[in-house]
Amino acid sequence: MALGDSGFDTVPSHLPADLLDRLRISAVFREGRAGFRCLLDDPRVREMAIRIRDSLASRGLIAIESVAIQAIAFDKTAATNWKVAWHQDLLFPFAKQVRSAGYSRSSEKDGVAFACPPVKTLESLTAVRLSLDDCGPDNGPLRVSPGTHREGVIPGDRIRDRVAASGEVVCTHRTGDLVLMKPLLLHASSQASAPEHRRVLHFVYHSGPKPAEPWHREV
């Protein structure tokens, strides 16, 4: 599916198996922890952000001038078997507490400022999830509602109706796949019925003019 039309796509990463193995056992994943945010200071994560950006840009899937502004590690296991209701990703990390017009929902997580940028900035973001394990229908895969990324910020009381109208797709994937997604796309995941490791490195890339507020990191 075309990313611009549906809001998501799955493509191979073409990354070597030994590199995926090293990431899988690295310190960004820890037994009993669901995940970690703001990982772009980790040299391995920074290298991966650059490699993925360059690979996707060479295939015309994201802009060559894109910069990674966020990296998060997830691992869904029997000990960390969470579910996520339908939502849009709206909060992103900034270098300081935001003050500019058009920004909202200012907060702080683990000492880092987060906020919701203007819709134009949200529309210029692309999330890329690197799959480090196979994820079938029983392991709580990502679910998406195609096309909902074109509707701006959807009020919470309208989300269920929008999913009902647009339908949903279950995004199963294999080790080494890249799942591309627009953050404004409505998405969710269920608890795994047969939980195993579901390790994912989740990057967010920004393209276009610099926002009024500086990102926490740019790679």
Return the CATH topology: Jelly Rolls
* Class computed from helices, strands and strand pairing: alpha+beta
CATH superfamily: q2cbj1_9rhob like domain
Succession of helices and strands: HEHEHEEEEEHEEHEEEE
Write down the Rg: 17 Å
- Estimate the strand proportion: 25-35%
Count of separate structural domains: 1
Distance between the termini: 27 Å
What summary fits the major beta sheet?
Answer: 6 strands, antiparallel
Q: What is the molecular shape?
A: globular
Helical residue percent? 10-25%
- State the strand order across the main sheet: 1-11-8-13-3-2
- Strands, total number: 13
Output the number of helix runs: 5
Question: Could you characterize the architecture of this molecule?
Answer:
- There is one protein chain.
- This protein has 219 residues and is α+β, with helices and mostly antiparallel strands.
- It has a single domain (3-206), classed as Jelly Rolls.
- 19% of the residues lie in helices and 29% in strands.
- The chain has helices at 3-6, 17-24, 43-58, 119-123, 159-166, and strands spanning 8-12, 35-36, 67-75, 84-87, 92-94, 104-109, 112-116, 125-131, 142-144, 169-171, 177-181, 187-189, 199-206.
- A hairpin with a 2-residue loop joins strand 6 and strand 7.
- The two termini are 27 Å apart.
- The model has no long low-confidence stretch (mean pLDDT 93).
